[in-house]
Amino acid sequence: MKKPWILGLTGGIGSGKSAVAQGFIERGVHVVDADHAARWVVEPGRPALAKIAEHFGAGVLQTNGELDRAALRKLVFADPEQRRWLESLLHPLIGQEIVQVLARAESPYAILVSPLLVESGQRQMTQRVLVVDTPAELQIQRTITRDQSSEEQVRAIMQAQASREERLRHAHDVLVNDRDMAWLDAEVERLHNFYLTLRGGQP
């Protein structure tokens, strides 16, 4: 069997990546989510969690021994140095995890969904990049509604992610997600049919 080619799917926070990924899953495409891989590598009993607790102290753990993401997020977003330390620990582990899951794909192409596709170097694992693009104000609105976070928090996360321009520079395909779900689904259908015609991600 031919190995599937890999499509990178990215977009800023609140852009609708998950909704787009879900559309591809419903069409039988194997999807790997870097966020899920990132959660898995810090589960209790995995070496990364012990290193994080050792570095940041027990304050980043919940009483049940799981990672307290909110506490860790506060620490790393406030201090670029700490964020770099955490990324250098986790990115290689997340990368290994993603590679293993992608290797099990049986669809003609597989998708790696990652909010940090461009800035984490995960783009190197893909043959083509699809960016879900959304006007910044809409991104902020959606995220506040979804996560009950403050506008300030959302803007801080957007600052830490690649800029829109940077993401779009790497895009082969752009899906502007500023309409309703029916329209979005039709766009996914159109892209899916196009991707099925590609070999190795190229026309």
TrEMBL record:
Single Gene Ontology BP annotation: coenzyme A biosynthetic process
Top-level taxon of the source organism: Bacteria
UniProt entry keywords in alphabetical sequence: ATP-binding, Coenzyme A biosynthesis, Cytoplasm, Kinase, Nucleotide-binding, Transferase
The protein's enzyme class: transferase
Phylogenetic lineage: Bacteria, Pseudomonadati, Pseudomonadota, Gammaproteobacteria, Pseudomonadales
Major site of localization recorded for this protein: cytoplasm
Gene responsible for this protein: coaE
Entry keyword annotation includes Transcription: no
Reaction catalyzed: 3'-dephospho-CoA + ATP = ADP + CoA + H(+)
Keyword hit for Transferase: yes
UniProt EC number: 2.7.1.24
Function as written in the Swiss-Prot or TrEMBL entry: Catalyzes the phosphorylation of the 3'-hydroxyl group of dephosphocoenzyme A to form coenzyme A.
Family: Belongs to the CoaE family.
CC per GO annotation: cytoplasm
Official protein name in the record: Dephospho-CoA kinase
One of the record's GO molecular function terms: ATP binding
Pfam families: CoaE (PF01121)
Subcellular location: Cytoplasm
Residues annotated as binding ATP: 14-19
UniProt-listed InterPro entries: Depp_CoAkinase, P-loop_NTPase
